[in-house]
Amino acid sequence: SLIKSLLPDQDIRIRALSEATGLGTHTTTTSMLYHLPNGGDLIDSPGVRSFEPGEVSLQDLEHGFIEFQAYLGHCKFSNCSHTVEPACALREAVAQGAIDPRRFASFQQLRNRITTSN
């Protein structure tokens, strides 16, 4: 459990992952607010498996991935979609190991959601 790893001293009820799906099983029955020791808050809500942000621009999405900052604006094309264009600084950073491929894949999935919903 993410919450249990962030707050190991809290008495948080967790169950094993489902053998059928590999996903966690719901144990939360009411929403709980937890205050994180280094600042910030975390809300555990029943039945929430994913969070869909509201309307986000492509530029806001790019800037939301902090590890992309050093590479933004360095692609060959100013309107680079970071998908197939040659000399894409983000894809080159992934290939060189400077950006985690899982984070880049997450970015691409979110980018696809934004472009297909507009």
The first-to-last residue Cα distance is: 34 Å
Question: What level of helicity do the residues show?
Answer: 25-40%
CATH evolutionary superfamily of the largest domain: Probable gtpase engc, domain 3
Which class of the largest domain in CATH terms? Mainly Alpha
Write down the overall geometry.
elongated
Q: CATH architecture of the largest domain, please?
A: Orthogonal Bundle
The succession of helices and strands, N to C, reads HEEHHH
Strand residue content: 5-15%
Spatially, the strands of the biggest sheet line up as 1-2
**Mean pLDDT score:** 85
Count of structural domains: 2
Point out poorly predicted stretches: none
Structural class based on helices, strands and sheet pairing: mainly alpha
CATH-defined topology of the largest domain: Ribonucleotide Reductase Protein R1, domain 1
Q: What is the alpha-carbon Rg in Å? A: 18 Å
Total helical segments: 4
How would you characterize the largest beta sheet? 2 strands, antiparallel
User: Quick one: how many beta strands?
Assistant: 2
